[in-house]
Design goal:
Elements (H helix, E strand, L loop, with lengths): L10 E7 L16 H13 L5 E6 L2 H13 L3 E6 L6 H22 L2 E7 L1 H4 L9 H6 L9 H19 L6 E4 L14 E4 L10 H6 L8 E6 L18 E2 L6 E2 L7 H17 L4 E4 L25 E2 L15 E2 L1 H12 L1
Parallel strand pairs: 1-2, 1-10, 2-3, 3-4, 4-5, 6-7, 7-10
Antiparallel strand pairs: 8-9, 11-12
Length: 342
């Protein structure tokens, strides 16, 4: 059967973290206020010219609060629950609750779909060996993920997750698959990818992207982005490792040079590729990372290790994040212009 061609960049989007439990007992978004949420969603809609947003996180109340604000601002919503380190039973229970809440919003607003998870082979326990996210991720360097039984375990879990979600939610389903995951897309409405370009795959990036059209389903890039220093475009999803968190105060490793241009060029290049290759939706990672504030001192400019396209300042500065002050990076301006004209 001839591959079906879908609208190019029908969904022009951005990722928005509602707070994720990467650290036990805490969320990535420590400051959470309704006024800041409303301001940020309004910026995404009116200034960034997005028509869709992927809201991800752990706390269900925050997910729903964010989704309602986004829907009221006219945005299509992809909702993605994350329960880092959860086992299959815990993750399915969490997904079920999110699916039920999302269905209530779908009945009222219609314009919402469900992404059942993100890179679960490393974010969730029980698929790849390792007692935590870092240990599982470290095995990727040894090509352990090429073992066939690993993908079998992943797809068995995804079938359960699809059944769990469809029992509660009547909208479209997708999944944010990592580069190393070989997903059976039969159960999904949308092929979903976290598809970063980096040094090892840049020469065949477009060729690999085209392969996903063989499923005759819309293809959406749920995650792609770049940090803010020279050479970050070669690092892909590992760019944040430039931040050293082992000391009492996080700081930048080595002699990295801040470059908003590197981030902007990377994102714009991929958006142009996605339009040419008939990709249905694209979601830049990420909108804002308040836990990585900017500093004029390069040693403490944590924003260099941020995928965020706006920069904020620390709470002990004259214009802290909590005041609502923000500054657009070059990538913000490039994305805004691209989305506005495409």
């Amino acid at each position: 059967m001839k591959n079906q061609i879908h609208n190019s960049l029908y969904q022009k989007g951005i990722n928005y973290d509602a707070g994720t439990n990467f650290n036990p007992g805490s969320l990535t978004r420590k400051i959470w206020r309704k006024d800041l949420l409303e301001q940020e969603i309004r910026i995404i809609s009116e200034q960034l010219h997005c028509n869709s947003i992927q809201i991800y996180g752990t706390d269900i109340n925050r997910l729903m609060e964010s989704a309602i604000v986004a829907l009221k601002n006219g945005l299509h919503v992809w909702l993605q629950p994350r329960l880092v380190e959860g086992n299959q039973e815990e993750t399915l229970a969490h997904l079920s609750m999110v699916a039920q809440a999302a269905e209530e919003l779908r009945k009222q607003y219609q314009n919402i779909d469900l992404n059942i998870g993100c890179e679960l082979s490393i974010f969730s326990s029980g698929i790849m060996p390792g007692s935590n996210f870092e240990q599982r991720a470290s095995k990727l360097f040894s090509k352990w993920w090429l073992l066939p039984w690993y993908n079998k375990k992943l797809n068995n879990y995804l079938r359960k997750a699809c059944a769990t979600a469809r029992a509660r939610f009547n909208g479209k389903l997708s999944y944010a698959a990592a580069l190393w995951e070989q997903v059976d897309w039969k159960e999904f409405d949308i092929v979903g990818l976290n598809l970063y370009k980096m040094s090892y795959n840049e020469s065949k990036y477009v060729k690999n992207l085209r392969k996903f059209h063989r499923y005759n389903k819309p293809v959406t890039i749920f995650e792609f982005g770049c940090c803010t220093f020279e050479g970050a475009d070669k690092k892909g999803p590992s760019g944040h490792e430039i931040v050293d968190t082992t000391g009492t105060v996080p700081e930048i490793r080595g002699n990295a040079v801040r470059s908003e241009k590197a981030q902007a060029n990377y994102i714009l290049e991929l958006l142009q590729i996605y339009k040419l290759e008939h990709i249905y939706g694209a979601f830049v990672y990420d909108f804002i990372m308040p836990n990585k504030p900017h500093s004029p001192d390069p040693r403490y400019d944590l924003d260099m290790g941020s995928y965020g396209i706006i920069k904020v300042y620390p709470e002990d500065s004259d214009q802290p994040y909590s005041s609502g002050y923000w500054e657009p990076k070059k990538a913000f301006q490039e994305i805004s212009e691209f989305y506005k004209n495409n």
